[in-house]
Amino acid sequence: MEEGFMDKVIERAGQYVIFNAETGPDVATAKIADAADPKKGKFVPELISFENFKKDKIKIGTENVMKKNYSKQETIDKHMEGVLTRDYKADYDLLLDDYNKKIQMLAVNPPFAFVKVITMIVNTGKEREVFQFENENNTPDIEWGIIKKAVEILHSKNQGIGDFNSHAIVTFNGKRFDIPLLIERGQIRGVTNTPYSWLERLTNRGDREGHHDMIEHRSYQNTPVNKLSLTRNLAIRFGIDFAKVQIDYVTCTMKELMFYSLDQVLKLEYWYRFHHGLSIPSVKEFLDSLPKNTEEKKVELPDDGIELPSVQRDV
């Protein structure tokens, strides 16, 4: 083996881009798809008003009472009173809850998931930058700019297998979600002069040179461990308490979502560095170095002495 080979491998492994995307449901795009092919099942379910819902329930209830053929009018009147005076709000709330769950499912299915937050750590081996871009209200121009900028960063740092200065792209489930998201939403928003064919190559399963998708970056593909979330992987491997930053995607604020995304990439970076033999702090030191709230601040990894500058919002 070439002398100093492992040092070179570790040096190259220290050049990477950690990438994470958080999303929201794009109902407008889903409705366009529904209108284009109305015979297929709808991505956006119909939602009737409470008034119409109540009318339908009363109509059905009345028909059911009449079908019983009660012999006495007072019996009919009693059952009809129950139909007319019933509080249908609880039933409607169940319908509304089911509707909202189906809408939220759009957020995990490109192309109906719009880019809400993208967080990236770029490590050159000497310098380290954090970028975070936000698009709270699904604004087309803002999403266009985020995708354009994110792809430019990824592509400019990843020059291919033959280039020793190439940065690895590191994700968790990125081959099935984060990278396809950039492709789908980029095309929807009309992001041109973008290397879509290169992005598609990053989705190739088994490719561990240009794109390190940590969900598949191990040899035991069919074991239960492979199917665990990032949360559980970090917990069982390193004892990292991830639960403290779990959020409700439906009700969380934009600030909370951005903090959550930053927390994700920092912990994913820890796993990647450990996996490639790079220097890391102890788990306790690492946890102590993480941001404790949603305020922007510098974060230091003790063993490296590398600082994460305040988040840059270029978009």
Summarize the entry for a quick read.
The protein is of the alpha/beta class. It contains 11 helices and 7 strands.
Report on the structure:
- 46% of the residues lie in helices and 13% in strands.
- With 315 residues, it is α/β, with parallel strands linked by helices.
- It folds into two domains: 5-25 and 111-296, 2-Layer Sandwich (Nucleotidyltransferase, domain 5); 27-107, no CATH class.
- The strands form two sheets. Strands 3-2-1-4-5 form a five-stranded mixed sheet, sandwiched between helices. A two-stranded antiparallel sheet has the order 6-7.
- The longest helix has 22 residues, at 254-275.
- The protein starts with a helix and ends in a 7-residue tail after the last strand.
- Residues 305-315 have low confidence and may be disordered.
